[in-house]
Amino acid sequence: MWLSEYRYCSTVFVLPPWKAIYVNDAKRDHTFEHAESVYRTVREWYRRCRYQLDEVPGVSIDERCTYVLEALARMQGV
């Protein structure tokens, strides 16, 4: 599997579906339940490819950015 052999980073940030902000529109025509199903499938797929999953919390955009940047800094040993 290409993903397993040619990984850029061993950690993947995942953002679970968030019911409170989920809306349907012209570009997002799937249900929230479908989004949850896709999320579970994606998580399992990354796990099978031996990636470490880091779930980004459902907080404000600024807090999400801070979370990811701090996690990346920890990975780099900064």
What distance lies between the first and last C-alpha atoms, to the nearest angstrom? Answer: 32 Å
Could you describe the largest sheet, including whether it forms a barrel? 2 strands, parallel
Helix content: 40-55%
Tally of helical segments: 3
- Unreliable runs, pLDDT <50, ≥5 residues? none
Task: Output the strand order for the largest sheet.
Answer: 1-2
Global outline: flat
Q: Which sequence of SSEs, written as H and E, runs from N to C?
A: HEHEH
Q: How many β-strands, per DSSP?
A: 2
What integer value in Å does the Rg equal?
15 Å
How much of the residues is beta strand, in percent? 5-15%
Question: Which helices and strands, and how do they pair?
Answer:
Elements: H1 2-5, E1 11-14, H2 32-48, E2 52-55, H3 61-76
Parallel strand pairs: 1-2
Would you summarize the structure shown here?
The protein is mainly alpha-helical. It has three helices and two strands, in the order αβαβα. Strand 1 (11-14), helix 2 (32-48) and strand 2 form a beta-alpha-beta unit.
